[in-house]
Structures are given as C-alpha cells and as structure tokens.
Amino acid sequence: MTDLSSVCEVRLNAPISTWFGVGGTADRLALPITIGQVKECVVSDASLRVLGDGANLLVNDGGVRELVVSLAGLNNVTMDAASGVVTVGAGVNLPRLITMTVREGLGGLESLGGIPASVGGALVMNAGGAFGEISSVVERVYVMGRGGEERTLERTEIAFSYRHSGLNDYIILGAQLRLVPSDPAALRERLKEVMAYKKKSQPMAENSAGCCFKNLTLSIEDAEFGPAGARVSAGRLIDRAGCKGLRIGSAEVSHVHGNFLTADKGGRASDVIALIEEVSRRVEGKFGVTLTPEVVVWG
Predict the structure, then answer these.
(1) Is 294 marked active-site?
(2) Which candidate in 104, 133, 252, 294 is catalytic?
(3) In this structure, is residue 191 part of a structural domain?
(4) pLDDT tens figures, 32-86
C-alpha cells in the first residue's frame, strides 16, 4: 500500500473544521491538490470521508477513525463570460464563487447568497433555499467512484430533487455550470436583496450549520399548514412546538429562526446531537410528523 504522506499532505489527529465549531478530530486528514492525489487517497482507504466546507457537518466528540479527505485544494475556476459556462472544482467556496460570477455579469447563482458550502457539498445536497437551488444551473458533474474510476455525469443522469442529488456514493471532483450573461449591477442588487433577507431572518453570526432539518411535505390536509402535498417549513413546526430558545448544555435552538441550532464556542457536539433528538421528539409529539435532519453527523 502506498504511503499516503508521500503523495500529499497528511495531518494526524487533526481538527475537522465545521460551522458548528465543535466536535472531535480526524485520525488522519489528507489534503490533496490534484485529482491524481484524490485517487491515491481512495486507493488508501475506500471508506474515506469527504470534507467540504464543513457547513452541513457535525463531528461527534470522539472523532473519526476513517481517512478524512479535504477537497479544498480542488479550487480551480474558469469562466467564459460570453457563453456563461463556468467550470469549477469541488473545493471552491460557494459564497466566493457567487461573488466572482456576479462581478463577471453571470447570473444564476446570486439566489444562493448566504448559503455556506463548498461547490461539492452544495451539489451533493442540492443546496438551496427560498430563492432557488444549485441544480438549476448544473450541466454536468465530474465524479470519482470508490474504486478510483472517474466519470462525467450529465444533468439528466443526476436525480436532483429537494435536498437530494443521489451523488452521495461518489466523490465530487467538480462541475460545469451554465449561467446567464447579465447586467452586473442588477445581479449585485439581487444579491444584496437575498443577503438582506437572510440577515434579517437567520442567525448569520452564530455557530450553526444553517437549517438543521429538511422541510416536510404534508401527506394529508392540515387546517393550519395547508393541503396535502404542500411543503411545510420545519422552522415553523419547531416554533409551534415551543422549541425556540430550548437549550441543552452548550447547544440552543435559535431565537431568530427555529430551524437553526447553534453551538457555544468550546461546546460539545453531544449537546447538539441531544438537542436535535429533543426537537425531533417534541415536533413529533405535537404534530405526529418526523423531522429529517439535513445535518450530517460523523462518528
């Protein structure tokens, strides 16, 4: 077996950076900067865990035994302002990419302003919000299988839906996006509007992974929430269940938005996990529905 440290940088007992700011370490954290190095990581440990921006991730306090591979080094971006084609590496920070495309007068990503993610993580979860989803601009995605084989998946081959892509079994290497040449000034104004909405309605400055739970679709008509098939905000259910401000140890349900769980600096991941479970229990007890976490827990 190849000594992985001879191929790329490998850190031992390394902190795993997440937006919660709590949790354990990785026994081994690899930092490849080429696709060839990513393949060597796969050969070294096919069960490896892929780290993006850590925005939708909670690492248990005991840490992770499997190899953790950060894709931050796959950060290439090429843009064709005339055609709107943007080719981007999986490790590129999504807010940074949004700023770049708006500056170039390429529209389509500005509706995702305020969403913390790497491009790879955004693709896996089909990141989005009230103003749109990343799947709307995807042409193709470049991936690697757990056997080290590379593939190009066309948009029609990817099962995008609400917070779903079907890409979880792959390692995302990058993507080709199709944006729309537009007026940069108009795009800047739209981005400002989106960000203003987020800052007003979400605890942007807190240690949080963004929305903790997926919104639900009603299976039957509900007098309060609407007809069967309507999508119901998880935050609204959490609020109605009286969970805003609920605290367990170092974790709290935000007073600003019920679907945001926050962690104190120096807190414990176990408190966040316990709070996720308690919020789920209370919502199910009041409404008879089961919340599904968006947050991924390692360890």
Answers:
(1) yes
(2) 294
(3) no
(4) 999 999 999 999 999 999 999 999 999 999 999 999 999 999 999 999 999 999 9
